[in-house]
Amino acid sequence: MPEGHSVHRIARQFARHFVGHEVAASSPQGRFAAGAARIDRRTMIDSRAVGKQMFLEFDTGDFLRVHLGMYGAWDFAGEVALDATAASANGRMGQTNQRGTVVGAFEDSLSSIGAPRRTRLRMAEQESLRDDGAAVPDVFPPDPIGQVRVRLLTETVVADLRGPTACDVLEPLEVAAVIAKLGPDPLVDDLDEGEARFVATVRRKPTPIGLLLMDQSVVSGIGNVYRAELLFRARLNPHTPGRNLTDEQARGLWRDWVHLLRVGVDTGQMMTIEDLDPEAYARALASRDDRHWVYHRTGEPCRVCGTPIVMEIAAGRKLYWCPKDQA
């Protein structure tokens, strides 16, 4: 499932290419025809993410809300301006199966946008140039491929949505109600207020911290990868009840999430091992195996103590941790 950094990157692609433009909305699949009709030929005026949910606002006051869930993805095509972390990867980017080395990965990808060029870009948990650098057909817009729930189209760019968990058109009060149920997001909320909310919530809960970090009402945007890595970086046992954490431990988790989320948005990668030399950093960008402390490393030696990493099922999701360093 896409974690917070991916959804923020998608929202900013919409800000670059759709906000300020009249948008033709349709539902090639047919399942969202009524919703598409409400926003068809309206001007998009805002695009924002809160945790794992995205809200596209139109001049009617309506919002298109999208939660990608496990299988959802956006495909962009047309004159897409790729940022430094996407344009230079020469292929697939994201959580798995990246090819190539990212150039300029330390650049702020939100301001280092290249000139628009005709291309295709998939954005979900992983980002990829669909044509892998090959020429893109001159026909625009391209025909929908597969079960496209929503197609959003301007004169130069098209975005196709497939397989979302949630896709609906909401009024402002309905959007406010959805957001009110979400925990703080470091890229949306005031950092001090967000920290205070997070700490207060965690420290009154008997629930294990490994489950609290995945609860979107406690904190927005954290998924399986960031959960495992945050806990290892803090050397916290995932089974520790939230109320047993000290103030310092809870604040440390929030502040590390602030940091890692920014890194994820800037690089397009869930980069959780730091202070690497240039060669090791290039390897980490190119391979998940060199990017994380414990995630997806069942049975492999801990990078700190050598103890085999443990994987267990917690609330239906895989939890990775070191039984010695996080004892």
From TrEMBL:
Query: Keywords on this record?
Result: DNA damage, DNA repair, DNA-binding, Endonuclease, Glycosidase, Hydrolase, Lyase, Metal-binding, Multifunctional enzyme, Nuclease, Zinc, Zinc-finger
Q: Which SMART domains match?
A: Fapy_DNA_glyco, H2TH
Annotated ranges, domain FPG-type: 293-327
Determine if Oxidoreductase is one of this entry's keywords. no
Cofactor dependence: Zn(2+)
Gene Ontology biological-process entries: base-excision repair
Checking Pfam families in the record gives:
Fapy_DNA_glyco (PF01149), H2TH (PF06831), zf-FPG_IleRS (PF06827)
Ranges where the Formamidopyrimidine-DNA glycosylase catalytic domain occurs:
2-100
Q: Does the keyword DNA-binding apply?
A: yes
One GO molecular-function entry: damaged DNA binding
InterPro entries membership: FPG_cat (IPR012319), FPG_N (IPR035937), H2TH_FPG (IPR015886), Ribosomal_uS13-like_H2TH (IPR010979), Znf_DNA_glyclase/AP_lyase (IPR000214), Znf_FPG/IleRS (IPR010663)
Superkingdom classification of source: Bacteria
What CDD domains does the record point to? AcNei1_N
Q: What is its EC number?
A: 4.2.99.18
Q: Which family does it belong to?
A: Belongs to the FPG family.
**PANTHER family (alphabetical):** ENDONUCLEASE 8
Name of the protein in its database record: DNA-(apurinic or apyrimidinic site) lyase
What organism, scientifically named, is this protein from?
Diaminobutyricimonas aerilata
